Amino acid sequence: MAKKAKKQQGGGGTPATVALTAAGTDFTVHAYEHDPASASYGEEAAEALGVSPERVFKTLVADVDGELTVAVVPVAGQLDLKALAAAVGGKRAVMADPVAAERTTGYVRGGISPLGQRRRLRTVLDASASAHPTICVSAGRRGLEVELAPADLTTLTNAVLAPIGRA
User: Fold this and answer.
1) Per-residue pLDDT reduced to its tens digit, 36-88
2) How many helices (H) and strands (E) does the chain have?
3) Which residues are 11's β-sheet partners?
4) pTM for this predicted structure
5) Residue 129 Cα distances to 2, 6, 32, 123, angstroms
6) DSSP string, 144-158
7) SS3 sequence of the chain
């Protein structure tokens, strides 16, 4: 049974939506009722919004050679850590400690947004994003997604586009 999603323009009140508004970026906020028992935040969002999992992207924080790095990949796949390291000129990547990721970004796990982070981290967006006119990423809390053009996300986060996802 699909969850009901609400669609609203602009606003939302998270650091991510505040950053988007301040930048004058076109975006849409999608809210849905988050189920704490859900096994996958990203898949839950795709289902609730009625959007293909290839267009909903999850924000993961990895440690690349001692530097926290954000990876934004489709929820339909997984992060390729070797590809992430290569995309930023690193040698080795591992998933970051969740507490360090939360403390550094200012967001909770399952609600980490690539936008409006407490400390701006180096960001890599999976190249598959450019195949879509818009993609959805976390708006900064569980149950809230923001839809925007991949080019806008790339610009606002100063992201590198690279093939870092795998099926």
Assistant:
1) 888 788 888 989 999 999 999 999 999 999 999 999 999 999 999 999 999 99
2) 5, 11
3) none
4) 0.90
5) 24, 23, 23, 14
6) EEEEE-HHHHHHHHT
7) CCCCEEEEECCCCCHHHHHHHHHCCCCEEEEECCCCCCCCHHHHHHHHHCCCCCCEEEEEEEEECCEEEEEEEECCCEECHHHHHHHCCCCCEEECCHHHHHHHHCCCCCCCCCCCCCCCCEEEEEHHHHHCCCEEEEEEECCEEEEECHHHHHHHHCCEEECCEEC
